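Reopening this ticket.

The earlier resolution said the output was attached, but the attachment link was broken on my side. Pasting everything inline this time so it's all in one place.
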Amino acid sequence: MGKQFSRFQYNAPVTLTYAFISLAVLVMGIATKGITTQLLFSNYRTSFLDPLQYIRLFTHVIGHANWEHYSGNFLIILLLGPMLEEKYGSKNVFQMILITAFITGILNMLLFDTALLGASGIVFMMILLSSFANAEDGRIPLTLIIVAIIFIGKEVVNGMFIEDNISQITHIIGGLCGGVFGYWKNKRRIYDNSSI
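Inline output:
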């Protein structure tokens, strides 16, 4: 039995840990009828004197409203995350998640009166970042342009014409973060290789 279990590999520690923590938070939210989700994992405008406000700038990407919300985000994260961790390193992917969470959280808090909940900004960051996976010599991959047009363009159109409970601006900002991270990491890789 022990030998069979040892064949499993925790191949993407950031991605898997993120998925498991978010699942535990979802279960806790269901068990508390959403109280913990709203208190600790929903980013919304409150007093700057509220110490939880600063925690929620990061934790909003962990909480989810329900199973459909969670599974919709984490199916993509679990598909892209391992590849991104292999390409950029787990530490870098973790930092990218934190930076994207902070940027989307602070912009939502400062500019909007709505609550922000879920990992969709991280999903869009990973989608655009993955488009840089096979970039070479400072060139911009055509796949990146097509992905940006399809995913970000759709969010711009939806934000203009559809009223729903989805934060299209978070998707757009998350995607822009992924594009910036990918461009920066690709440029840095080229610089590091040329100085050898």
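Reporter confirms the inline version is readable. The chain has nine helices and no strands. The radius of gyration is 18 Å.
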